[in-house]
UniProtKB/TrEMBL annotation, chain B:
The chain crosses the membrane at residues 167-187, 310-330, 342-369. It comes from Povalibacter uvarum. Its main location: membrane. It comes from the Bacteria. One of its GO terms (cellular component) is ATP-binding cassette (ABC) transporter complex. InterPro entries: ABC_MlaE_roteobac, MlaB-like_STAS, Permease_MalE, STAS_dom, STAS_dom_sf. This is Phospholipid/cholesterol/gamma-HCH transport system permease protein. Residues 1-89 form the STAS domain. It is found in: Cell inner membrane. GO terms for molecular function: phospholipid transporter activity. Belongs to the MlaE permease family. Keywords: Cell inner membrane, Cell membrane, Membrane, Transmembrane, Transmembrane helix. It is a multi-pass membrane protein.
Length: 277, 373
């Protein structure tokens, strides 16, 4: 437990503010436009993700957070604009190149999306088995490693997803996302539906892995606690555009929705204990 | 080549190089296997030549080195220990959440006797559940018939449309083809006795009494039985059924009854269409193959049929419909937890409803003979 406390990030605004100086962006979204029929979801969205940072994406329901994530993953083709991963446009990549990119990122989905007919170990081994020819013993060892990384004991291996609790499903999904030793992690609402204690533990887990493995993390979240504890920068999807800044910078933004989000009754309840410190 | 080992006296030096990562997992495995397991003395590990270490590569090496340590060797890293190893070490010290599961693992099959016993109990429970399901449906039906509102007419109409009207093309086609086959077979055999005219009797009786209703029921079991099971099964997986229950809505009334009633209405109507198409097929083949024109065919059919023949076939339709709809919805309701379960129970629904339809048909045949119907 004491160690968990150490992981608690000490926020230094200047460090986060310098993120622009941290080198070339890993992902950069340029003027992306997404339309569904007549409804415009994104109208010229631009966003840079820098190596080694944790970027939180927030926005109201229906503001297109998930669509943005799917666009970054190359699962959705935008109507206009481009998505560059390490400087290369994923829309123009050949299938082989796209596969090579996909091997380098891990994704967790909102409801876990574990394959319900496979055991937890098989879920983790599936991507490894698809790409590399590892022996049974190595696959076993690797599955156990991923489980240990996310803090699940080895007896989870033989369980089916339906036998796990909500928090464990999230952890197992994270273990599967880490299967190919990615450098980039996408998390879609990682703490949604968890009790506050499990959610806080999950936040610490994400930070711990991010720090230990030098991951770049992009997460969609509604949880203000998660945002405050884990994220270096926050991107707000608002009026079909994006505003990205450090948490402090965003909170100072005069836009009414942002003010409501960070200074509404629920936000005050979250921040009150922090101000006392 | 990821590993060079050098044995000098009591100490072993391992020189690592290249990429120790998941992309070369095969090579990593081979390299790790080369490290002798009977470690004695001192093992020096030199990781300075490694260009890339990831968790997977480090883990396999780490496990081997740990095994060496427990065997009594003294493992030392010369120079800087790769950073991932620090992380691995830290990780090993972290406590893991124990896994609590919702239910116990099934005990391994110790012996045949226990297996037979367990299956027998399971069968008993299943039979009881099935009877209970039937009773519940009957009760709900009785209650619903008293008030029109709880009968859910729009829902019934939807199921009549989906299971009945949409099935007309395939049912007609199959009835037509089957009667052509029967007529063709019959004509060939009966021609030997100069009794071709009896082909008409054969087709008319076979189609009206058996083929029309049986084939229609089998097609509908495949089409709608599976649809019922899958639809309700997915609702179960999405917890929609629980949502209905929590609202105090009787899901038998909303989900099961409209399907049962819809199919009980649709299947007899489909059977009539199948009968008509079957006779049309017979008529066509008779005129092409046997030179029996339509004006001869119709009186012959009328002469061949007893007044009860048509009803003998049609009476079975609602019974078959009841069986198909019940099995489909019952199996759908049993879906729990996983997508595999959904697939399995949908298959079970189709196989069982076809079996039950044929079994019921056999019972009807015996009863008809006894009643001289």
């Amino acid at each position: 437990m004491a160690e968990r406390q150490q992981n608690q990030r000490v926020r230094r605004p200047e460090e986060a503010a310098n993120s622009a100086a941290r080198g070339a962006p890993v992902i950069s979204v340029r003027n992306v436009v997404n339309r569904f029929g007549r409804q415009v979801v994104h109208d010229g969205v631009s966003l840079d993700v820098y190596p080694g940072e944790v970027l939180g994406i927030v926005g109201g329901s229906g503001s297109g957070k998930s669509v943005l994530l799917r666009t970054m993953l190359g699962l959705h083709r935008p109507n206009a604009g481009e998505v560059l991963i390490e400087g290369k446009d994923i829309m123009k990549m050949s299938n082989e190149e796209l596969l090579a990119v996909k091997r380098r990122y891990g994704v967790t989905f909102q409801h876990g999306a574990l394959f319900s007919s496979l055991t937890v170990a098989q879920n983790i081994q599936l991507p490894i088995h698809e790409y590399y020819k590892a022996s049974e013993e190595a696959l076993d060892a690797l599955a156990k490693l991923r489980l240990a990384m996310v803090g699940l004991s080895a007896d989870a291996c033989t369980k089916l997803p339906s036998q796990l609790s909500g928090g464990m499903v999230k952890r197992a999904a994270l273990a599967r996302a880490l299967a190919l030793d990615p450098t980039l992690l996408f998390l879609d609402e990682p703490t949604a539906g968890l009790d506050p204690i499990s959610a806080a533990e999950f936040d610490q887990l994400v930070l711990y892995l991010q720090r230990g493995l030098h991951l770049t993390v992009v997460m969609i979240t509604h949880d203000l606690d998660t945002l405050v504890t884990t994220c270096d920068r926050v991107a707000v999807l608002i009026d079909k555009k994006i505003v990205a800044d450090t948490l402090e910078g965003i909170m100072a933004n005069p836009h009414p929705w942002i003010q409501e989000y960070f200074h509404g009754p629920r936000a005050r309840a979250v921040q009150a204990p922090k101000d006392e410190k | 080549m990821l590993l060079e080992s050098q044995q000098s006296g009591d100490s072993l030096t391992l020189r690592l190089s290249g990429d120790w990562c998941i992309e070369n997992i095969r090579e990593v495995e081979a390299a790790v296997a080369e490290i002798p397991a009977d470690g004695k003395g001192t093992v020096h590990v030199d990781g300075s030549g490694v260009s890339k270490f990831d968790m997977s590569g480090a883990w396999l090496l780490h496990q081997r080195l740990d095994a060496l340590r427990t065997a009594g060797a003294n493992v030392e890293f010369s120079g800087q220990q790769p950073e991932v190893f620090h992380f691995l070490k830290e990780m090993a010290e972290r406590e893991c959440a124990p896994v609590r599961t919702s239910d116990e693992d099934a005990a391994p099959l110790r012996d045949g006797l226990a297996w037979i016993g367990r299956r027998a109990v399971q069968q008993g429970i299943q039979t009881r559940d099935a009877v209970g399901f039937f009773g519940h449906v009957s009760l709900t039906l009785g209650r619903s018939l008293r008030s029109l509102r709880s009968l859910r007419i729009p829902s019934i109409a939807r199921h009549v449309y989906e299971t009945g009207i949409q099935a007309i093309p395939i049912v007609s086609l199959i009835a037509f083809l089957i009667s052509v086959i029967v007529a063709y077979l019959g004509a060939q055999q009966l021609q030997q006795f100069g009794a071709e005219i009896y082909t008409v009797d054969l087709v008319a009786i076979a189609v009206l009494r058996e083929m029309g209703v049986l084939l229609t029921a089998i097609i509908v079991a495949g089409r709608s039985g599976s649809a019922f099971a899958a639809e309700i099964g997915v609702m179960r997986l999405n917890e929609e059924v629980d949502a209905l229950q929590s609202m105090g809505v009787d899901y038998f009334e909303v989900l099961v009854l409209p399907r049962v009633i819809g199919l009980v209405i649709a299947l007899p109507l489909l059977t009539i269409i199948a009968d008509a198409m079957g006779l049309a097929g017979g008529a066509l083949l008779s005129s092409l193959l046997l030179d029996i024109s339509l004006t001869q065919f119709i009186p012959r059919v009328q002469a061949a049929l007893a007044p009860t023949t048509f009803w003998a076939g049609l009476i079975k339709a609602p019974v078959f419909a009841l069986l198909i709809a019940m099995v489909g919805t019952y199996r759908g309701m049993q879906v729990r937890d996983s997508s595999r379960e959904l697939g399995r129970l949908t298959t079970v629904a189709v196989v069982q409803s076809i079996f039950l339809v044929i079994f019921a048909d056999a019972v009807f045949a015996v009863v008809y003979v006894q009643l001289d119907f």
